[in-house]
Amino acid sequence: MSLHQQVTDEFERRYGVKPQAVVRAPGRVNLIGEHTDYNDGFVLPMAINRATWIALRPRNDRVVRVYSIEFKDAAEFELDRLEKTPSRWVEYVKGVAWALQNAGYVLTGWDGVIAGDVPIGAGLSSSAALELATARAFGVTSGFPWSAPIMAKLGQKAENQWVGMNCGIMDQMISAAGKDGHALLIDCRTLDSQLVPLPPNTLVVVLDTATRRGLVDSAYNERRAQCEAAAQYFGVPALRDVTMEMFEARAAGLDEVTRRRARHVITENARTLEAAEVMRRGDAVALGKLMDASHASMRDDFEISRPEMDKMVELAQAHPASYGARMTGGGFGGAAVALVRAEVVGEFVTIVGERYRQATGLKPAIYVCEATNGAEVVG
Ligand code: GLA
Description:
Layout: H1 3-15, E1 21-30, E2 42-43, E3 45-58, E4 63-68, E5 73-78, H2 90-102, E6 110-116, H3 126-142, H4 148-163, H5 170-177, E7 182-187, E8 193-197, E9 202-208, H6 216-234, H7 244-250, H8 256-280, H9 284-302, H10 307-318, E10 322-327, E11 335-341, H11 345-360, E12 365-369, E13 376-377
Parallel strand pairs: 4-6
Antiparallel strand pairs: 1-3, 1-13, 2-7, 3-6, 4-5, 7-8, 9-11, 9-12, 10-11
Helix pairs in contact: 2-3, 2-4, 3-4, 3-5, 4-5, 6-8, 8-9, 10-11
The structure holds alpha-D-galactopyranose (GLA).
């Protein structure tokens, strides 16, 4: 049964009436442009056909009452008395309410049922999906206009300041603004975005390594701090402003680790812009090569991969149906992404999955993804 149907049925069961609206917001996979967003750089993600769905009806007070099918858990809170509780899925819902109210939106409460199929912790942005679906839900009950960049920024604020994860803007922006059949080249400084078509006869395959990031926050924050230190050294607001020529002229003055961190971001920004260009020409071979180079840069310069991830990427790259593969998302575990010839995708999935299992003893989850719309009201 589809998630749309599941949230609708569960809503009727719990509240005795049909929901007034159903909203959805997708997870994402990033094709290229990793750890560039918080450096004011470029990213090239697409929204995927895995999403968070909410069936809801407005209430005539300022209470939000919501049940999660995924967590088999109910929660209730008052918009006039938002308080943090120990980490639970509902903190993302509350965090968005907090960010919206903080920005001056006047909110109305709702009854809702939530379900999602974005795997948690796989690096596919299940939290951004929940944040943007929540923003859509409040949009329905409270009647404010939808702006993808504004809602993405508020989702990010919820994540940064309510949940306490210091992420960039990529995940929220693509979950808000994704478009069917396309990736989005996002300028993370201006939040301008351009639609970029996927190369013809290719499919995007997500390969979840079944490893999970452990102490991700500290490693992520450490990378951010290293990037900021490098930008300061070059005397610019962000590493986005450092060209390869500037880097080569002055990099010798940086310590070895900071130099490699900066080199990843600077080369990754260039690869991302080039990736959008070759995609516009429909050149899958060139895109695949850029993805391979991106992985090497994350592994060697940014040091955010791990042995199981390298193995998955190596197996995907070695398969004849693949154009290229790389780790995707924050790093230290989670999923890889591969660009694969559409007509042989079944064989790719079977063989790479089997070889990964043999090599690591882990059971991977593999998803052939379609590019979908960002957050929307569907009924
Ligand atoms: C996580 C963060 C994003 C981005 C990526 C790395 O997904 O949430 O903002 O920084 O890592 O590209």
